Amino acid sequence: MRLADAGFVMRVAKNAAEMERLKQLPARRMVARTIDGKRFFLYADPASCQCVMVGDQQALQTYRTMRASPSQIPNLPPSGINVEDSVIRDMDQDLGNDIRPNDILAVPY
Fold first, then answer.
1. What is the number of structural domains in the chain?
2. Is there a contact between 27 and 44 (Cβ–Cβ < 8 Å)?
3. What percent of the chain has a predicted confidence (pLDDT) above 90?
C-alpha cells in the first residue's frame, strides 16, 4: 500500500469495541485528528482490512509527494489504491476531535 510506504501505520480492529470505534470514522476518506495537541491523519477501511492507517504530518507529506510522482516509486501498481481518488479536505474542522489514550486510532510510535 502506498500509505504504508509513506510511513502510515496500520492499526487493525481486534475486537468488537475497536471495530465500532473504527466505524465512527468516514470510510475510505482521509481525515485529521489530534493526539495531545499533535495532528495525525487517518484513513479508515472498515470493510476490507478492518483497519485504520494512521500517519503524522511527515507521512502525509511523503504520501502527497508519492502521488505527485508515481513513476519515481519502484514496485507500485500503476492504478494505486482507492485513496488516490479521495480528496484530503475539511481537515481543519477535525482538529477538535481528539483521540483518547489507548484508542485503536492512537499512533503506536
1. 1
2. yes
3. 40
